[in-house]
Amino acid sequence: MTSGGYDPNQYPQGGQPQFGQQPQYGEQPKYDQQPPQQPYGQQPQQPYGQPQFGQQQPYGQPQDPYAQQGQYGQQAQYGQQDPYAQQQYGQQGYGQYGQQPGFGGQPGDLLTRFGARFIDGIIAGIPASIVYFVIVFAINSLFGSILAWILYFAIVSAYFVLCETNMGTTLGKKILGLRVIAPGGAPKISPEVSIKRNIYLIVNIIPCLGQLASLGLAIYMAITIEQDPNKQGWHDKFAGGTQVVKG
Fold first, then answer.
1. How is this protein situated with respect to the membrane (predicted)?
2. What sign for the dihedral angle of Cα 26, 27, 31, 34?
3. Burial (0-12, 13-18, 19+ Cβ within 10 Å), 194
4. Who has the most CB within 10 Å: 32, 74, 120, 123?
């Protein structure tokens, strides 16, 4: 022990503590003293159970379930879609493959529509036939026959127009669960639109030639209904885009 307070026996190696030696209790470390270094090529050890920096999780070891989910309010990374994100306003959803757009229901198939047309023909044909035979027997002439013919198909055509404009369907379509939707999904069918879509019936008013024209238009109507994805015949498109749907 010297007078300067320095004890050479305390640090036998030149008065300095050995490299990597911890200071004793109550002794402050020197400012020029560096922390102990690891041997060359060896990384510092991490606490038990904590993976080192850049080291991947061992295979098969379960990950922390709370660390996988993002924090509250945290946005997804760039290029990563949020599965729980809601669809934005005005954004169109993904339609099913092969699904065609409609106005408000499943399009009516060809056989069901012709079945409804057959029922409507019977319903409208009963009063029209009564008027026809009354005029024929009342006016026993060529003029009476022509007049009866015109009134017959006028009554049948009026039946379809009045039913579609007032009920949005006919009795035959209603029985088979069909209805007619106006162009663009409008709530009501106008008389002009209904006349256009039933024009193939109205041409029957013309004797002889009208029947041939009506038959050809009916065949063409069946072909176009079957080939169109929305089951719209040429008469539907001629009327501006009407559609017969189920419901």
1. Multi-pass membrane protein
2. negative
3. buried
4. 120
